[in-house]
Write a structure and sequence with these properties.
By secondary structure, the protein is α/β, with parallel strands linked by helices. 33% of the residues lie in helices and 25% in strands. It has eleven helices and 15 strands. It has a five-stranded parallel sheet, with helices on one face. A four-stranded antiparallel sheet has the order 2-3-1-4. Helix 3 links the parallel strand 5 and strand 6.
Length: 314
Amino acid sequence: MFEVLMYDGGVYRSEELFELVEDMGGTIIQKTRSSQILTVTMSIPEEDKTAIIDFCKEIGGEVKSVPLAGTEIAVVGPTLGRHHMPHPICDIAEHLRRQGAITVVMGLARGRGKLTSQISLEEKMIIDEYDAAIFSLGNFKPCVEAKADLFSDIKVPVVLVSGPMPEGAEDKCEAIVAGVGRKASRMRTPPEREKLDEMVDKVGKVLNDKKALLEEDPLFVHPAEIKQLLEEYEPVNMCLRPAPVVLHLDGLRVKVGYQEHHEAIENMEIYGRKIGEICRLSPSKINDSSIIVRIKTRSEVLQEVPGREGADDT
């Protein structure tokens, strides 16, 4: 069994940490550096956890478990205006990041007004690129209930966050966290922090349910294995955008243009197969800014190309 840990500390002797993880058979999921501060999310064998923790303490860093690592989550507000994008949305996104998730904050183009709120097909398709979505609505119960239709046909799991507990929204989302509405200050008090923890717990449960579905017909390869291969591709290695390769539960987001790079990526080989054979590549709906890679399941790959050995036979 593997366990995901997050290291938070300085860059001092960080190369030794990377080498230690590699020697243990683990994987570096994400690295984020800000000046001399380094945050590393890593997946390591459970039996080597103590050795990693001891080394991180030796070099002056802290280590903690992160249940949401390897996921990308969208935190959605009705609009980007100050009326709908208050402090709680930022606090929610930051709290999820501290639990290992990569988060983005987005606002809908026509989300304001109980009777006029809308979501476009393009916005739905953008949200569906992520592992899950959190919709943060407001303080008025009739307004929240009316706006529940915004996410009724989103394909990825949705967690609704609002002030009151809405009625009739249970069938339109996977979980609801009430008690977090619009407010003009940060979520700093103990009850507010407990609400953020409750949110993480519910998002974690929703994602675990999604993982359980994937385990019924496992992916042909683990996303981290393709991530390691893509990091050797020069345009990805030289990319200056934060987190050039982002893990999803069923694939990855690669932050290079689709038109220019998809053929080269499709022709890369892993376990004797081309990535184009075992994955579906598509351009991101956000201005072709990245490539969405969806890994096929083992049954899909073996059905399309029968008679060849799978990754689990290597």
